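Page 42, continued from yesterday. The earlier attempt failed because a stray header line got pasted into the input along with the sequence. Redoing it now with the clean sequence only.
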Amino acid sequence: MRHWMQPTQESPLTVPQTLGKLLARDTVQVELIPEKKGLFLKHVEYQITSQHFKISVYRRYSDFDVFHELLLQRFAYRMVPALPPKRMDFIEGRRRALGRFINLVARHPFFSEDELVKTFLTFNGSDVQVKMRDACKKMGDEFMTNTMATLAKDYLPADIQAQFSSSRELIRNIHNSFHKLRDRAEKMAERSKENATDLLMFGRELSTLGSDGSPIPSLASSQSTWGILRQSLKGLSVEFALLADKGAQQGRREEDDVVEKLNLFLDLLQSYRDLCERHEKGVLHEHQRALQKYGMMKRQMMSATVQPKEQVSVEQLESRIVQQENAIQTMELRNYFSLFCLHQETQLIFTYLPITSHILGAFVNSQVQGHQEMGAVWNDLQQKLGCLFGVDEMQSPPLTPK
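This time it went through. Structure tokens are written below.
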């Protein structure tokens, strides 16, 4: 059984993309700009800079919220990433999440050149929400504007449902594994930062110990070197502060280069899961309800024919049945178009999967760089200790038996 979609090259069902092409579509920077308005209310603005459109605009969270709502209306059959909640413990965490959201949207092959996305990324007026709503109202949803909407059925493979089920299961397993990878990477980054704090405090305690000017009591042996040793400890805090700085940099690299890439892919995988649920609970459910309503009307019609009533009510019922038949036909077309889009979105997930090598490369590079930088400082510290205390002192026999 095939686990993913393999349509023919000529088919409009094919999404001819590579990860490199998707990433090259745009890179959008989201920077935090705190802004105080009024005496008590503090609003946060974000500077959004698109490399593709070569422009910077300013957006509030409410602008993102309206944009997200309109994206779901316009592209109900596509992967629309979720927005982070407005209330988050860390504003920086929300900024990162908004950055992932807008980059996934700007790189999506069916979103990137859409008027709605262009408006959000380029419009500099104060009424951006009105502008976006007007753009969305004029276009309608994708079913109304996509030339493939009424032809989708002709291009779907006969085993589309089986392909969809197997792909969905595989992607669900991938999603679970990436969740675990992200959790581990977060813990490693946190440990790097905790290690940096411990190294800094270790150096400070050595400095405190070395700065103690208390006289050495006479009962101490005249052979004691504590006085000289104590003086030497003060200078060691410099190396430990440097080690702490390198450790903190390591933690930031792990967060920025590894955890953030994992979160980006997880956001995409979650949007695929949400899309599958929309397909099942939305289009399929509405189609089923329309068929039930149609069946009920047909029964009423038969009853009216068997037991003749006023001619007007029978004609009204016939008219309503025709309307319902048209509605069902539209529902069926939407259902096929939804499957058509699901097929394409599944391809995009597999197109994104090579990001795994980017993540692994970033992880290994961050470890190599961190160990090299910290190793150099440890080596310098080892040489310094040799000069201060002598090599013999540093290579003493174990203080406790093994």
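Notes: Confidence is low (pLDDT under 50) at residues 1-8.
Reminder to self: strip header lines before submitting.
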